[in-house]
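ok, trying the design again with the full structure, not the truncated one.
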């Protein structure tokens, strides 16, 4: 499954690197599948920057310890972005097949034996879908609960910064491979569809070979923490511990999915709500040369100079989203018996246009991020499904869960990065201004060959917006153009091609003429006023298709 070698390099930080070569198989490996990892294959019609897909691989790690007397409760959470038939295939258990409607959320409990132990295993579930879905995976045992975000294959990277290990009394200060809560943190590396070479560079360089759709594990040590992981094919990487000591002399799972590093450093905006009242115990873990995490200082929430960053506080790990990765629409499915919270960061000029479902936020209590142009707010999530979107801009959203015994945090699942005042966009609007003048009927055919239709101004709230994008497409032209408004020959009644009511018009003075005059409608690009004309007259077509929206 996985081969491994260390190659000699020049001395780093005054230490010589060691050179060994061996093949790790069977029990010589640290557990092959450690944590929930979901690998998705997306269709070409999905935006390459969202968390939606059609194919996912799910594995459930050991939570606390495989020998714990309380059985695990592992679940796969699925939200259908479009109408879809999903299948959950398991190697050793009966498949699950079900049809879901767009917007529908469902949780599927897995057999308790699907959880992995400390020995290599191939227990996994394959989630397949006929159309776009999102997938999260929930791992629960006793009071230890964690939620995993899915990163599809198209979002996986080839470079990851290895975080520093946080100081956790009873876990990181007394290392022992024989005691679960004292074992080191681990990197869990998952290849996608290709055989992959993974190189970990720190005080020593280690090279691994992973088979397609394979998962390997590397201990995070003094030699590699703060280093870099690089691969020749996209991989997913988790930073995790199965049972880190927490308050009350108990232990629980800690995990976060590392986000791919950029080839440059970018700022991170860190609202104080992420520290949750533990500022003195909250640290930023980064891929820095130092092995010492940086304390979080609320007065300086703008972190710069990092390729990637993870926030740690007792019992909590969270990969931070860089300012460059803002999005416009997210979905959150609340966890039962937890206090579910949404923490959002928005530019100060755009706080009024955030929507929670179909409504504006209720008393969000926006607060300034010190020294920045951004505001933040912590808002309680509603039971079940929450769709949060922005009408005109982009934002950062985190999903946090709290109980008396457990906490988790994940970047919220992204559905879209296309802001729109009408809703959560799955497929963006399209407008095409034809170059050649045609008759009205020929213009209809021209548009339909492009998968569009002559533009209809049937919704008053859309009219200024469509006029604005027509202006951008005009390129200085003031020609007349056909629109999708026509008169019925028998009654003289005007109708839109999209079959919606004619509720608002913009006729020029003296228009329209009598019933026996023009039957079709031309619009002037200089004034956007309409007039009726004979349908055989030639004019350029304005073709349009509305966006496709996710039901909020």
């Amino acid at each position: 499954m996985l081969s491994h070698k260390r190659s000699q390099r020049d001395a780093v930080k005054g230490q010589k690197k060691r050179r060994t070569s061996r093949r790790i198989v069977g029990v010589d490996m640290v557990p092959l599948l450690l944590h929930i990892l979901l690998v998705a294959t997306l269709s070409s019609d999905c935006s390459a920057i969202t968390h939606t897909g059609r194919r996912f691989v799910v594995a459930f790690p050991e939570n606390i310890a495989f020998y714990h007397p309380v059985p695990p409760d592992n679940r796969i959470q699925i939200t259908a972005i479009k109408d879809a038939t999903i299948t959950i295939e398991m190697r050793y258990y009966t498949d699950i097949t079900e049809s879901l409607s767009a917007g529908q959320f469902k949780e599927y409990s897995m057999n308790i034996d699907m959880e992995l132990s400390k020995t290599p295993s191939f227990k996994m579930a394959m989630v397949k879908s006929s159309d776009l879905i999102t997938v999260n995976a929930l791992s629960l045992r006793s009071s230890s609960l964690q939620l995993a975000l899915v990163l599809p294959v198209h979002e996986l990277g080839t470079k990851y910064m290895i975080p520093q290990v946080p100081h956790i009394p009873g876990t990181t200060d007394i290392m022992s491979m024989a005691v679960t809560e004292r074992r080191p943190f681990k990197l869990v590396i998952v290849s996608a569809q290709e055989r992959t070479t993974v190189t970990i560079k720190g005080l020593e360089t280690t090279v691994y070979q992973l088979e397609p759709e394979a998962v390997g594990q590397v201990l995070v040590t003094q030699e590699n923490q703060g280093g870099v992981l690089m691969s020749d094919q996209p991989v997913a990487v988790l930073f995790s511990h199965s049972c880190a000591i927490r308050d009350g002399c108990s232990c629980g799972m800690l995990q976060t999915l590392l986000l791919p590093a950029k080839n440059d450093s970018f700022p991170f905006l860190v609202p104080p709500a992420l520290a949750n009242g533990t500022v003195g115990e909250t640290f930023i873990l980064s891929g820095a040369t130092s092995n010492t995490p940086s304390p979080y200082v609320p007065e300086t929430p703008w972190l710069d100079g990092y390729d990637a960053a993870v926030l740690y506080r007792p019992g909590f790990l969270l990969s931070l989203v860089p300012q460059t990765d803002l999005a416009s629409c997210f979905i959150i499915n609340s966890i039962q018996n937890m206090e579910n919270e949404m923490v959002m960061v928005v530019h100060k000029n755009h706080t009024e246009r955030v929507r929670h479902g179909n409504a504006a936020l209720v008393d969000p209590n926006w607060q300034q991020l010190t020294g920045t142009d951004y505001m933040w707010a912590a808002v309680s999530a509603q039971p079940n499904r929450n769709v949060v979107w922005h009408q005109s801009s982009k934002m950062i959203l985190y999903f946090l869960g709290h109980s008396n015994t457990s906490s988790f945090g994940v970047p919220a699942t992204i559905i879209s990065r296309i802001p729109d005042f009408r809703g959560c966009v799955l497929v963006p609007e399209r407008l095409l201004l034809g170059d050649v003048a045609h008759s009205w009927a020929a213009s209809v055919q021209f548009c339909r060959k492009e998968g569009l239709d002559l533009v209809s101004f049937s919704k008053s709230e859309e009219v200024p917006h469509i006029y604005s994008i027509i202006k951008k497409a005009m390129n200085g032209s003031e020609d007349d153009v056909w629109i999708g408004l026509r008169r019925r020959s028998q009654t003289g009644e005007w109708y839109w091609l999209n079959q919606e009511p004619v509720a608002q018009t913009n006729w020029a003075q003296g228009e329209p003429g009598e019933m026996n005059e023009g039957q079709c409608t031309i619009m002037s690009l200089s004034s956007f006023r309409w007039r009726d004309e004979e349908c055989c007259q030639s004019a350029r077509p304005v073709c349009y298709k509305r966006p496709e929206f996710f039901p909020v």
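Keeping the full-length input from now on. Helices lie at 440-449, 463-474.
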